Amino acid sequence: MIHRRTFLGALVIPLTTAVRRVAAQQTQVARIGWLAIEPLPELLGAFRKGLQTLGYVEGHTAVVEEHYAGGRAERLAEIAAELVRSKPDVMVTIGSASSLAAQGATTALPIVFVVGDPVATGLVKSLSHPGGNLTGLAIIAGELNGK
User: Fold this and answer.
1) Which residues are paired to 138 by β-bridges?
2) Which of 30, 82, 99, 133 would be 113's cystine partner, CB 3.0–4.6 Å?
3) pLDDT digits (tens, 9 = 90+) for 101-141
4) Cβ-based neighbours of 118, under 8 Å, separated by 6 or more
C-alpha cells in the first residue's frame, strides 16, 4: 500500500503546478475534479491535507469535486465526460481505468493521474516525456527495486 506521505508529495507537486497555472489566469476558486472507480478516503484525505499544507483552503481557494463509478468500471467513460463538461480546472484520476476514461474524455484539460505503470497502460509515451495533457504518479516501485 502506498504510504500517505509518499502519496502527498508525489501527487500534490504536479497538481500544484497545474492549479497555480490556472490561478495565475483567473481569480476564481480552483476547481479540482477527482475521479475514481470507488471512494478511497485515505488517499482523498491525504490529498486534501497536501493542498492545505500548500496553503489552499478548501471552499475558498480550491474545491475538490468527487466523482465515483460505484465500483463499475464501465461507467467511468460516462462519468469522465460529465466531469469534463462541468469544466474543472484540473482533473485527478486514481487508477488505470479512471485515467484512461479521463484521457478519452479530453485532450485539453490537465489530468494528474495515480497509476501502476502509465507507459504500459498507454497513458503516456514515456516517463521522461509524457506528452499531452497528462502527468502524475507512477507506482512501479516493485519493478525498480532491483535497480
Assistant:
1) 115
2) 99
3) 999 999 999 999 999 999 999 999 888 888 899 988 888 76
4) 99, 124, 127, 130, 134, 136, 138
